[in-house]
């Protein structure tokens, strides 16, 4: 009996290896003139290593102009066969029509052979950025509606992807007796929620509501711009909430969106990361704002920063190589950082 108990405990404690993804800077087409072919080639190179499990791209409509995520992932799907294809995160999901989005995403899932991975989020509130306010205005969405729209969108997508006679009547979205075809190849098609709720921004009750939303509606949680201690705290809270929601916390997965800017000179690595992020997000990042989600320095330093989150239990790390020369940073990521991370994993 003791041996069986020990074996059971060992099985419970055994941790699946963390997997790794590549996040492409699809806004680089606008900010740096990076051609689409170069982004697609990056995805192909990443898959060829055998060590990259997912390709991620970003999303916006007007606030941060870029190649639209779904067509870009469709082009990558045509040139790859194994990697999952994700949006990290779909910040405009609350601005979209659920029936049209359900068809677009289901089509991508079918075309790719069931490889899609959707991480949904609410995007910037109107108060945080003038272009975010403009985007919401143009799309006819009030900033305060974003949480409710996100919840309804996820519920609507799940119905449309599973039911032959899908009906939904919410505050923001409504449809009756819709048989959406084709259905996704994946059953169910995964939907994660991305976000890093902070009490300093939305209060303790706001954090509780945000984490409860993730525990209730999502298949997993994606975080970024997060301290290691906060990641651990939120992860522990989510596990408790999942049990309260009648869900299996062991089936719930976590993803970290993280950047690496590699240079033997840590100050130069920081300067390149800041210049990239400032242009990408139209902000003036502080040092803390850069380093909270970007490891800046030699390979060993970057590996150590990511390893801390792996040890904290993250299931997948979506890494974005950034800097002055994106191709050079990608090479370092694929040839030096990934092998080191896998050896330590």
Verbal overview:
- The chain has about 350 residues and is α/β, with parallel strands linked by helices.
- The protein has a single domain, classed as Luciferase-like domain (TIM Barrel).
- Helix content is about 50%, strand content about 15%.
- It has helices at about 1-15, 30, 35-50, 70-80, 100-110, 130-140, 145-160, 200-215, 230-245, 265-280, 285-290, 300-310, 325-345; strands spanning about 20-25, 55, 85-90, 115-120, 165-170, 175-180, 190-195, 220-225, 255-260, 295, 315-320.
- The strands form two sheets. The protein has an eight-stranded parallel β-barrel, surrounded by seven helices.
- The longest helix has 19 residues, at about 200-215.
Q: Briefly, what CATH class?
A: Alpha Beta
Count of domain modules: 1
- Give a short account of the largest sheet: 8 strands, parallel, barrel
Radius of gyration: 20 Å
Secondary structure class reads alpha/beta
Low-pLDDT parts are: 1-13
Helix content bin: 40-55%
Q: In percent, how much strand structure appears in the residues?
A: 15-25%
Number of strands: 11
Please list the strands of the largest sheet in the order they lie side by side. Answer: 1-2-3-4-7-8-9-11
Number of helices, where a helix is a run of at least 4 consecutive DSSP H or I residues: 13
Distance between the first and last residues' Cα: 32 Å
The topology string of helices and strands comes to HEHHEHEHEHHEEEHEHEHHEHEH
* Mean pLDDT, all residues: 94
- Which architecture does the CATH hierarchy give at level 2? Alpha-Beta Barrel
Q: What's the CATH H-level superfamily name?
A: Luciferase-like domain
CATH fold descriptor: TIM Barrel
Mass-distribution shape: globular
Q: Give the quaternary arrangement of the chains.
A: single chain
């Amino acid at each position: 009996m003791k041996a069986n108990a020990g074996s059971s405990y060992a099985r419970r404690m055994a941790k699946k290896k963390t997997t790794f993804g590549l996040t492409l800077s699809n806004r680089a087409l606008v900010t740096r003139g990076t051609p689409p072919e170069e982004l697609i080639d990056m995805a192909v190179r990443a898959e060829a290593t055998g060590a990259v499990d997912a390709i991620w791209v970003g999303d916006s409509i007007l606030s941060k102009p870029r190649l639209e995520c779904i067509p870009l992932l469709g082009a990558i799907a045509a040139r790859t066969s194994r990697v999952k294809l994700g949006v990290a995160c779909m910040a405009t999901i609350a601005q979209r029509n659920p029936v049209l989005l359900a068809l677009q995403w289901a089509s991508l899932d079918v075309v790719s052979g069931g490889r899609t991975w959707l991480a949904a989020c609410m995007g910037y509130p109107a108060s945080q950025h003038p272009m975010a306010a403009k985007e919401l205005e143009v799309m006819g969405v009030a900033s305060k509606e974003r949480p409710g729209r996100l919840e309804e969108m996820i519920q609507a997508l799940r119905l449309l992807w599973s039911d032959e006679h899908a009906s939904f009547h919410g505050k923001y979205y409504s449809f009756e007796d819709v048989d959406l075809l084709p259905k996704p190849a994946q059953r169910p098609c995964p939907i994660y929620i991305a976000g890093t709720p902070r009490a300093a921004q939305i209060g303790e009750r706001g954090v509780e509501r945000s984490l409860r939303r993730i525990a209730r509606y999502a298949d997993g949680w994606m975080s970024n711009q997060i301290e290691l201690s906060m990641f651990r705290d939120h992860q522990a809270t989510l596990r408790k909430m999942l049990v309260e929601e009648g869900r299996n916390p062991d089936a719930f997965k976590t993803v970290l969106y993280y950047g690496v800017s590699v240079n033997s000179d840590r100050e130069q690595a920081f300067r390149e990361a800041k210049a990239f992020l400032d242009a990408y997000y139209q902000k003036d990042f502080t040092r803390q704002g850069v380093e909270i989600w970007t490891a800046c320095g030699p390979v060993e330093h970057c590996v150590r920063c990511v390893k801390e989150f792996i040890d904290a239990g993250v299931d997948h790390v979506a890494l974005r190589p950034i800097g002055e020369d994106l191709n050079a940073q990608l090479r370092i990521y694929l040839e030096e950082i990934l092998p080191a991370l896998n050896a330590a994993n």
